[in-house]
Amino acid sequence: MPHSPADGILAERKAAEYLEQKGYRILGKNVNYPRIGELDIVCEDRGTIVFVEVRYRKDKELGDPLESITKPKMRKLIKAASMYLAGNRLEDMPARFDVVSVTDLGIGHIENAFYGDFI
Amino acid sequence: MNAQVKTLIWLNRICGFVTPRMHRILSLCGEQDLRKAFPNLRREITDRFGADTAAVMADTYDDEGLLNREIEALERAKIKLVSIYNAEYPDLLKEIACPPLLLYCKGDIGLLKTRCIGIVGSRSPSRYGLDVTTTFAAALSQCGLTVVSGLARGIDSQAHRAVLDVSGKTIAVLGCGIDRVYPADNSALYKRIEDEGLIISEYGLGVPPNSFQFPERNRIISGLSEGVLVTEAGLKSGSLLTANDAISQNRELFAIPSNITSVRGMGTNKLIREYPHCAVFSPDDIAERLRISGHTQPASVMQLDFIEEKLVEALGFTELNFEELIQISGLGISDLNAVLTKLELLGIIKKLDNNYYGV
Amino acid sequence: MLAVIKSYGLEGIDGYPIDIEVDVQGGVPGFDIVGLAGTSVKEARNRVRSAIKNSSYDFMPRKVTVNLAPADTEKEGSAFDLPIAVGFLAATEQIPSEGLTDYIIIGELSLDGGIRRVNGILPLLISALQRGYKRFIVPYDNAKEASYIVGAKVFAMKTLCDVCSFLSGIMDAKPVEYSKYESSPAADKYGIDMADIKGQSAAKRALEIAVAGGHNILLCGPPGAGKTMLAKCVPTIMPDMTFGEAIETTKIHSVAGRTDGERGMITSRPFRAPHHTASLFSLIGGGAHSKPGEVSLAHNGVLFLDEMPEYNKKTLETLRQPLEDGTVTVTRVTRTVEYPASFMLVASMNPCPCGHDGSRFKECTCSPIAKMKYKARISGPLLDRIDIYVDVDGVDYSELRVSAPAETSADIKKRVEAAREIQRERFKGKGFYTNSRMTNAQIKKYCALDAASEKLLETAFTRFKLSARGLTRIIKTARTIADLRGAIDIQANDIAEAIQYRVRGVES
Lengths: 119, 359, 508
Prior knowledge:
Chain A is an alpha+beta fold. Chain A is built from two helices and five strands, in the order αβββαββ. Chain A has helices at 5-21, 71-87, and strands at residues 25-33, 37-45, 48-57, 95-103, 106-114.
């Protein structure tokens, strides 16, 4: 069954709930920089800014959610993250990239999914 | 330029330098000049040599311009012509079955009237072959003989060189056009013979070294000579053909024995088996057979000590390698090296390949 | 946070200090290495990241910038992994940063946090010690190599954890104990001895002279005559390597990554026999990383060129510089490196392309032109550097059965060493110590000839059509022959023997 936009929105909501449960403070959702990229969730974990990319999969058969993040996608996220840090005067804060995968079976969380030098 | 020679130059081109054919055509006109007699002979020539030949002859027999161009080219190349009708033509050569009608010459044509000995042999000789060639060629030359050979690689070149080195006289008979140097690496030697000896060929300007011409050349080598010496030849050497020519032309044949284990001397050894009389052991043997006053080189007076004498004597028998020399002399390596240098400097012994020494 | 670690880089066979600055900042996480770092250095970031994680340290997501100063020299290799990792841990305050700069840290990391051996430890240590650095942290596998350097406090470590514990003062470690240098006779290493070769007295004698005077030698003989065997025996009659020579040679082998792990040092004279298809780079050195070539690996030993005319002519031409100066300059786009390359050249050739010219057993099948071309392939200038030429006997079966005891390498070596001693005395302070390297002025000074010798040379000059250079070579060789006798003056006999070793047949 093809994904509907509603599935995505639902997944992002689920992910945010999950992170809040873990004690993360949500700073923003769907932060969009036109022609650069969009950050699904921006939150803070004990002094580290966390940029979260949410991936929705109906089941794991289509592969690991992390695999679905390609290099161009990473590049977009890194640029957007830099914009966010600069725009909010947070340049000196440590930051990281996480991936949260939402499937019908449950939620997975990968911390430090990639680094800025991966591209 | 007399008319006979001109006719021969013309005929050479017509017949492509094939001498037997020229003889046959010339036999038709008897004493007359062929070109003058041609219109009368045309029918007969057509019958016997084909219409093509006759047609070519008819086209060119009165073309003085064509002939003059060739003569000019010969003059420019400083080539002298000796025809069978000339006084300079060697008498001995006239005796052979099919004597060349016209000799293209470079150098001293006076040598054609001297007493000659042919020296021929393998193109890839052994050290021994080269050595004996040098010795015999030099000695025979010093007896006053002119050494005739074929300017081929190996023995032939060595014979020419050895003679020139003792300022003797030598004739090179080519198997290609008189102006061609074959093999090309002999060009320096060619020049030397041209200056100090004589180069002859029955082939005119520009004739390439076709393989069938070399056996023809061999008959001239033996034809010019009172005797032919084969110094070293393998079983397939062309010099064996020269030896056959010498036999059929009733010339003396000489061959130098080789080591029976030597592949390169099997041809000469075979000659000796077939004609036992041809074996010679020194230049004097040849001089005697040709009834020339013997040539003996005055033994050089050299002071050799006991060990040196012993070494020279041992090397006189056979080539020896360094290890064997140590045993014979009983010397240490460094002393033996010093002695060998001394003997080498005196010219008594020679260093050969693979650490062998010989006299 | 910033941490600075001292490390060392290689330029040719000399080192230079490198400051590794590791800066850790907030912001988008990343790992950058700057300072003209080559690909192999850049790849450090992945090894460092994994090694840190797998050593149970925290690889925090931070913006990490590593600078290798001086930033204007190109750096290659994996030896900076360890200092970068240590720098990161110090910058993130996982280990204390005091006292880190007391150490030069070198090592490659494996993903599990282990430390792997690196090339060039010996030259690094020597050069760093000269600049006053005393304490080193090196891979455990390089310990043996490092143990010969007296004065250095070398700590050999197996893992990143050990290094950190040691630097934090949690763990104590003892510096590597010094090893005493002991040369090992080449006869043992190569398992071959002059006594194994039957006959060939002339060639053996020529080799003895060549080794005694440091002369280059050309062996000529048919295939199967034993040229290679003779050449392999050359190191066995050379004097044992001194510590200085061993260090020099090891330095080169270390840079090329060819040290013997067990012994750590090259203790016997090298014997290098590059094949004739060897490329210019592999022979002379160079290529992308300016590695030393065969001529340098043969430093203080023997370079054997089997079938010399088969080598590419251009390749042979490039041997002229090392034969002349004892060094070789390798020029690349980015830098020029000079390596020592002082070797004894032992070359061999067949009498002709098929090898049977002059043989008593087989007929030579080569055309005269092929023979000429074969011999012309060894150029005159190269021949000028070859003092001794000797024919090797063709195989003689009667001789192979001879069981008369031949001299052993050890016997010959004794004579060679005595002759070398005389030369060392003679050339004290001249920067060289063999007769082969005498200049014309020195020949005049040290090779006075008596009347008989002069006469002999003169006769030989005209009779054998020698060249002026040929004469010089004969005199030098005669000097060595006299030295082997222990004599002060050259006698006519020495000259006479030397004349036997003149180059024949090849030059006309």
